[in-house]
Amino acid sequence: MALKVTQREMDGVAVIALEGRIVLGEESNALRETVKGLLAKGQKKIVLNMDNVTYIDSAGLGTLVASHHSAKSQGAGLRLSNLGSKFQEVLQVTKLLTVFDVYDSEAAAIRSFST
User: Fold this and answer.
1) Which of 5, 24, 30, 43 could form a disulfide with 38 if both were Cys (CB 3.0 to 4.6 A apart)?
2) How many CB atoms lie within 10 A of CB 34?
3) For residue 3, which phi and psi values (nearest 5 degrees)?
4) What CA–CA distances, in Å, run from 18 to 30, 35, 83, 113, 115?
């Protein structure tokens, strides 16, 4: 199943809702290009809503790390929200929980930009 990427804006924050699998190939490229496009337009606040992500492989994790790094290097912030317990576990095991700003809800992630 392809990764479905839905983009909208709330309170000046770009929200990218992801649905499906973030795996090597078109899926991780779609995510990378979406984030790259937002950064190119000057968007400094990005939330990735992971609520409907069913699976992520090492390439998908690499894409998240690369997106986070790109955002940071351009003075932007990238937040993750709605991680499932499995995904949270993967980030914990790989020590990536210390890299990302993770929030329980999309609303909390959006609010974090105004503090």
Assistant:
1) 43
2) 20
3) -80, 130
4) 10, 12, 11, 20, 25
Q: What is the pLDDT of residues 5-31, one digit of tens each?
A: 999 999 999 999 999 999 999 999 999
Cβ 42 vs Cβ 10: under 8 Å: no
In the predicted model, is pLDDT for residue 1 greater than 70?
no
Neighbouring C-beta atoms of residue 42, cutoff 10 Å: 8
Separation of alpha carbons 98 and 45, rounded Å: 19
Q: Which residues pair with 19 in a beta bridge?
A: 4, 52
The helix (H) or strand (E) run that includes residue 5 is strand 4-10
- Quote the CA–CA distance of 79 and 113 in Å, as a whole number: 9
Q: Are 28 and 22 in contact (CB under 8 A)?
A: yes
Residue 23 CB-half CA count within 13 A: 7
What type of residue is 7? Q
In 3D space, the residue among 38, 112, 24 whose CA is nearest the CA of residue 100 turns out to be 112
CA pair distance 56, 18, nearest whole angstrom: 11
- Predicted TM-score (pTM) of the model is 0.95
